[in-house]
Amino acid sequence: EMGHINHIVSKIAMSHPHIAFKLTHNGSEIINVQQTDSLLERVSAFLGQEMAKDILPIQLLTDWLEITGFLLPPSHTRPNREMQSLFVNNRYIVNKTISHAIYAGYHTMLPGGRYPIVVMFLKIDPLVVDVNVHPTKSEVRFHQEKEIHQLVVKAVRETFLNANLSPDMSVPAEGDREKRIREAINGYFGSTIYPEAGNWQSFSSPYSPLEKGDGGLLPPPEGDKRQDVGAGLAPVLLPLCQIYNTYIIVKGDDGVCIIDQHAAHERVVYERLMAQDRGILSQLSLLPISLELDYQETATMLESIPLLNELGFKIDEFGQNTFIIYGVPVGMTKNDPKETVLGILHDIQNTGKAKTSSELREDMIISMSCKTAIKAGQPLFAAEMSSLVQQLMETQQPHTCPHGRPTMIKLGMEELEKRFLRK
Fold this sequence. Notes:
Layout: H1 2-15, E1 21-25, E2 28-33, H2 39-47, H3 49-52, E3 56-61, E4 65-71, E5 77-78, E6 84-88, E7 91-93, H4 96-105, E8 115-116, E9 118-124, E10 129-130, E11 141-142, H5 145-162, H6 176-189, E12 239-243, E13 247-252, E14 255-260, H7 261-274, E15 282-292, H8 295-310, E16 314-317, E17 322-329, H9 337-351, H10 357-372, H11 382-393, E18 408-412, H12 413-419
Parallel strand pairs: 6-9
Antiparallel strand pairs: 1-2, 3-4, 4-9, 5-8, 6-7, 10-11, 12-13, 13-14, 14-18, 15-17, 16-17
Helix pairs in contact: 1-2, 4-5, 7-10, 7-11, 8-9, 9-10
C-alpha cells in the first residue's frame, strides 16, 4: 500500500511545483519537496541529480494540442515504463497510445526490452478526453488518438534532432607543438605522412569506407544534403588507435571517445539506405545463386521479393521452395548474398507480427545494415577509421545503432582527472 501511496503522491507533486509536499512513513521521510516556480526543478527532484543533468525539454504547440515536458536521452532507460509520467491537463493518466508514441519517437535508439524515461504534459480540450475508461479515472481515451499519436512521435523526434547528444567533438586550433610534430614527421619520411587539415582523403562511399576501390557499396543519393563536416574537422577526428580491431579511440576537445566500429557503421549504412527515395542500384551476378528454403521461409520470401528487389537484390522464384539470386546491391561484393538474404528473412520472421510495407522495408534495411557493416575484429587503416568517424558524426542520430546499442562512449577530462586523483 505504501508503494501505491508513494507513486500517487510523486505524480501529484511532480505536476504541481507551486505546492510543497511531504510524505512520511513510520517516522521516515519519503518525500520532501519545497514549493518552486520551476517545473524543471520539481521534476529534477524526483529524477535525481545524475539524470537531471542530461534532461531534455520537449515542446510542440498546435492550435488544439500543447505538448511539453522533459525526456532523457537513450543512455538512460529502464526495463519497464515505471519512469514514464504522463499528464493530461495536469492530471496523471495512463494511455497506451501516448506510451506507444513515445516509444516510437525513440525508434532505433533503444535496445530491446528497454523503455525511455519521460515526463510529458498534454494540454487539450477536456471534451476530447474520455475519462470513463477505468474506475480510478487514471486511464483515458482520446477522440483523436491517431492525430495525438502522430504529434507525440513528432515532438519526441524533434527534441532529439534539435539536441546535441553526440560527444563534444569541437575543433581546437592546431597549436605550434602539433604543427612542429607534423612537420618533423613529414620531413623525416620525406613525404606527407601526417597531412595538414583539409588534405585527408575523403571516402564518399556511404556503405563502407573500406570499398572505395570497388566504387563503394552504394552510390550517394541524388540531392544528398547531409551537412559537410568541413575540411578542418577530419584531422581532429583522426583516431588515435584501434583496439582489439573493434573499437576506435578518438581524441576530442575535452576527453576521449571510444567508438564501436560495427555499431557506428550500421548507423551510417542505415541512414543512407533510409534516405533513398528511389530503388537502390543493382549489379548482376556473374553466376546466379540458387537458394532453397523451407516452407515458412518460402512464404516469407514470396511476400518480401518486391521489397528485396527495391533494396537492390534481384530475386526470382525458380521451382518449388527454390529461388534464384541474380543481382545484389551495387558494391555488396564482399558479402555472401545467400547468407545476407537468409538473415533478412529470419529477421522478418522473428518480428512476429504483420507490418506495413514501410515498416517491412525498414526492418530489411536494419537487417541489411547489420549484415553488411564493418565487423568487430576487422582491422582498419587510419584513413578508413577517420572516414567512418566523420560519416558517423554527419548522421542524424550518431549515438546509437539502428538496434539501439550505443555507438560511442565518452570519457571526459574531468572523469579522467578524477580517476588519476588529479582532482
